[in-house]
Every structure is written in C-alpha cells, then in structure tokens.
Amino acid sequence: MSLENLARRPWPLRIMSFLFWYVREFVLANGQVTVEVLRPRRRMRMAPAIVAIPAASRTDTEWTMISTLITLTPGTLTITLSKEHGILYVHGMFVEGRESFVAEIQEMEDRLLHAMRRDVGDLTRPVQAPVVAPVEVDEDEAGDPL
C-alpha cells in the first residue's frame, strides 16, 4: 500500500497497518541475517557500512521510536542521531548502495510517522549535509576540560 493511500486511512487503521508491515519486515530481516550467518565465510554477501540518513522526526518520542525500531531490526543499528541537524547515523549489515539503504530507512520512518501522528503533516528532510565546526573547550590550569 502506498503512503498516500495510507495517509487517507483513519488513524487506528494506520497503526495496525504499520504494525503488520513492521512484523513482515522484521521476519524478512531475521531470515536474511540467519542465512548470512549460516553461509560459509568465503560466500558471505555482507556489505557493512555506516550511513547518515536525513530524518523527518521532530519530537523526542518520534526520534526514540525510529531509532529503537531500526536497532530492533536485525542487520541494522542506530549509532547516534543529531536532532538539531535532522540526521540518523545507522550501521547496516547489507548496504548494497547508499541510496537504496537510505530509501529503506526513510520508508520505515515515513510509515512510523503516518502511524504515530494523527495529522501526518510535513515530512520534509534536510537536503544538505550539515557543516559542523569544532567547539572550543575551556580548560583549567592543568589542561583538563572544565
């Protein structure tokens, strides 16, 4: 079901739809990881990577839910997040390409936000990577940070 059709459904049905979708994805990910673990080492297909993913989450609850669901899904792990920049840093066990991995995680987030928000509203994401400058740290006389 497309996200546009999902947005038109009543809120309780969106929650149920998300739960069924997530259980399906969870089972498929378990199967993929199990097959990979049992595969002989020379034939493994793992392609691990850490990817910065622009996110549409805004509230602490949304950030907590998406990072928890990513971590619960076998083969993925939320490393950290930057609320101020709107970025999730996710480790993936099977990252064939950055764009496809980002699309998978963003689809999960979109479905989650459609289920959590009564009025879905704006799901825009940052379009440019943030530029982060080093922060000056005040030190005491011994050179230790305050």
Oligomer: single chain
The helix/strand class is: alpha+beta
Beta-strand content bin: 5-15%
Order of helices and strands: HHEHEEH
- Shape by Cα distribution: flat
Radius of gyration: 19 Å
The tally of beta strands, per DSSP, is: 3
* Low-pLDDT residue spans: none
Mean pLDDT: 85
Number of helices: 4
Distance between the termini: 53 Å
Please give the share of residues in helix: 40-55%
Biggest beta sheet attributes: 3 strands, antiparallel
- How are the strands of the largest sheet arranged? 1-3-2
Can you describe this structure?
The chain is of the alpha+beta class. Helix content is 45%, strand content 13%. The chain contains 4 helices and 3 strands; from the N terminus they run H-H-E-H-E-E-H. Strand 2 and strand 3 (87-92) form a beta hairpin. The longest helix is centred in the N-terminal third of the chain and has 28 residues, at 11-38. The protein is flat, with a radius of gyration of 19 Å. The model has no long low-confidence stretch (mean pLDDT 85).
